[in-house]
Amino acid sequence: MSTATLDKQEPKDATGSAAVELITATFRIRRFNPEVSAEASWEDFQVEIDPKERVLDALHKIKWELDGTLTFRRSCAHGICGSDAMRINGRNRLACKTLIKDISPEKPITVEAIKGMTVLKDLVVDMEPFFQAYRDVMPFLITSGNEPTRERLQTAEDRERFDDTTKCILCAACTSSCPVFWNDGQYFGPAAIVNAHRFIFDSRDEGGEQRLEILNDKDGVWRCRTTFNCTDACPRGIEVTKAIQEVKRALITRRF
């Protein structure tokens, strides 16, 4: 005896495509324009949108249809370039990876620039100090001797040792979620330490001692208070706090 199963039919629009149920969401954006005022202010926008869309889609809709002066960074829109990091409902996230339905769209959705960096306009911050800290830890392979005739080989086990910290996309979500960085912009910050870790533990690299000495500075790894904010904020799932602790351990054990 056979049993027939009827598939649930989704509502269709006039073209026969599945109908999209739109909602009206309120986006409360912290605006700042130094040419207009020295103070930032909040501005609300009502956006009719599919809740399965991303916050970045809503920002595009606001800029293209409601207020062309809204300013924010974005590039690939697929969580690779890291340029659209911002505070959404009080948490650092990538706008291109945050679905509206996942952040309580029945309440106003707050969007503001990441903390600890100078705001240039609206959601755009000055990233130069962040990238300077990144450059300071020498984020490149350092070797001596002649160039090899083929690629520098490495075992899978040696590669796995630093695999986690190769995932960084330099979005600054971790660094700008750090309370120490908020209070003292001289601190290297989690992202710079993560990128130093990536080379310190690379078996092919010979610059580990130099990087450890750089991070042994008063503004280096010892400023970390292990709050795990950075790990929670990382959109790539990097165990940032663990990496910082491993660099601290390397600094201690190298002396014995």
Provide a descriptive summary of the structure in words:
Its cofactor is [4Fe-4S] cluster; [3Fe-4S] cluster; [2Fe-2S] cluster. Keywords: 2Fe-2S, 3Fe-4S, 4Fe-4S, Iron, Iron-sulfur, Metal-binding, Oxidoreductase, Tricarboxylic acid cycle. Its EC number is 1.3.5.1. By secondary structure, this protein is α+β, with helices and mostly antiparallel strands. The protein has two domains: 23-125, Ubiquitin-like (UB roll) (Roll), CATH 3.10.20.30; 128-253, Fumarate Reductase Iron-sulfur Protein, Chain B, domain 2, CATH 1.10.1060. It contains eight helices and seven strands; from the N terminus they run E-E-H-E-E-E-E-E-H-H-H-H-H-H-H. It has a five-stranded mixed β-sheet with strand order 2-1-5-3-4, covered by helices on one side. It has a two-stranded antiparallel ribbon with strand order 6-7. The longest helix is centred in the last third of the chain and has 14 residues, at 240-253. The protein is elongated, with a radius of gyration of 23 Å. Mean pLDDT is 92; it is low at 1-8.
Number of strands: 7
CATH architecture level-2 label of the largest domain: Orthogonal Bundle
- Give helix and strand order, one letter per element, not per position: EEHEEEEEHHHHHHH
> Radius of gyration over alpha carbons?
23 Å
Shape: elongated
Strand content: 5-15%
Structure class: alpha+beta
Major sheet: arrangement of strands:
2-1-5-3-4
Q: How many discrete domains?
A: 2
Helix coverage percent of residues?
25-40%
CATH homologous superfamily assignment of the largest domain: Alpha-helical ferredoxin
| Overall residue-averaged pLDDT value | 92
* SS summary, helix count: 8
Q: Give the CA-CA distance, first to last residue.
A: 77 Å
What's the story with the biggest beta sheet? 5 strands, mixed
CATH first level of the largest domain? Mainly Alpha
Low-pLDDT regions: 1-8
Q: Determine the CATH topology of the largest domain.
A: Fumarate Reductase Iron-sulfur Protein, Chain B, domain 2
